[in-house]
Structure formats: C-alpha cells, structure tokens
Amino acid sequence: MNWKTIFNPFERFDDKLLLIIGLLGTALAILMGCWTGTFFSSIYKVNSLEKVTLQAVAIPTLISFSSAILILFILGKILNSKTRLIDIVNTVLISQLLLVILQATEKVAFIKEAQERLISHQKNLSETLPVGDLMVTIGMASFALIILIYSITLYYNGFKTATNIKKWQHIVLFAAVSLIMTLICQIVLSKYF
Questions:
Q1: Segment holding 47, helix H or strand E
Q2: Is 73 inside any structural domain?
Q3: In 10 A of CB 6, how many CB atoms?
Q4: Mean pLDDT, residues 106-134 taken together
Q5: Element holding 40 (H helix, E strand)
Q6: CA distance linking residue 4 with residue 12, whole number of Å
Q7: Which intervals of the chain form a coiled coil (predicted)?
Q8: Is pLDDT at 121 greater than 90 in this prediction?
C-alpha cells in the first residue's frame, strides 16, 4: 500500500467492496448518531438532536447522502456520459466514513469538559488560562481538521476517478456544485429536523 492508495482507494479497490464498506459506514454513522444524539444535515455537517430516535437520525442522514449522490451523479453524467452510479455512491459514502470518528468525540467527556472550561474562562479573564484545556481543545480541533481534509480529499479524488475530469473548469464546477448542494441540504433539513 502506498500514498496513492491511501488518498485514492477508488483506483485500487474493487467497486463492490467499496460499496459494502460505504454501506456499513452509513449504518455505523446512523448507529453512532443514535448514541451521540447527532445526525448528518448534509455531507460534512453533523448536527445535534434534542430528541434522539432511530428515525430522527436515519432519515436526515440518508436524505443528505442520497441528495449528494443524486446531484453528483447528474453532474458526473454531464461531464462524462460514462460515469457510473456505483462510483458516485462510493465517492460519497467512503468520503463520509471518517466523519463517524468525529461523531464519536461527542461522547468523550474530557474533551467536552475542556471546551466548557475554556469557554467559561472567556467570561472571567482574571482567572489563569487553563493551559491543559487549551491544549486538549487545540489538539481536538487539529484532529478534526485533519479528518476533514482527508475526507474532502477522498471526496474529490473519488469524483475525479468516477468522471475522469481533468479540466480546471470542471474541477471548479464540481467544487461550486458541492458547496451549493451542501448549503441547500443543510437549510432544508434544518427546517424539518
């Protein structure tokens, strides 16, 4: 295994295997959402729930993933008529897989406590800075940023592999469509969930 495999598993692994992993990852995201009280309001956006039920977690998560798949498949067909649905499904599902790790951090008590103490310090600046809490918060933010960058890299590489895009105009169009799709999905789902 080399760096290319890590950053673009879509070229190396069988599409059916990636689909199975992606579907298992989606099921894990839903189960993790039930445990942590979170759901995906769009790809790359995890929200908290007040009343946690399997339905309240599964429906918006599945809608957000499905809408991303549908929009990217349409864009893929426009850019390359040979784009296959399974490749787009794999792109979306595999890219979201690592975000389940970030969902799990909602239940790690010392991270939440460190963040809360840091926030309370902002209200009373006369106290000494809780350096340990600051380090935990910075470490968690750095970890989340690394996961997010890696996930976006998988998302881009998966779409690029599925559609064989090479022109910078197509890449810009992909980025714009992805951003708009994510924002619209968040707005629509936040009204209902």
A1: strand 45-48
A2: yes
A3: 12
A4: 81
A5: strand 38-42
A6: 9
A7: none
A8: no
Residue with tokens 């460190």: 114
H/E element holding 48?
strand 45-48
Which residues form the domain of 152? 12-192
Handedness of CA 66, 77, 44, 22 (dihedral sign): positive
What one-character-per-residue DSSP string does 116-131 give? HHHHHHHH-TTSPP-H
Does 3 reside within a domain?
no
Rounded Cα gap, residues 108 and 36, in angstroms: 10
How far from the centroid of its chain's Cα atoms is residue 186's Cα? Answer: 13
Q: What is the arithmetic mean of pLDDT over 58-72?
A: 96
The Cα–Cα gap between 118 and 164 comes to 46
Number of domains comprising the chain: 1
* Farthest CA pair distance, the chain: 63
- Residue 146 token pair: 């690394």
Is 67 domain-assigned? yes
**Which residues, listed in sequence order, are joined to residue 40 by a DSSP beta bridge?**
46
Mind listing the pLDDT tens digit for each residue in 136-171?
889 999 999 999 999 999 999 999 999 999 999 999
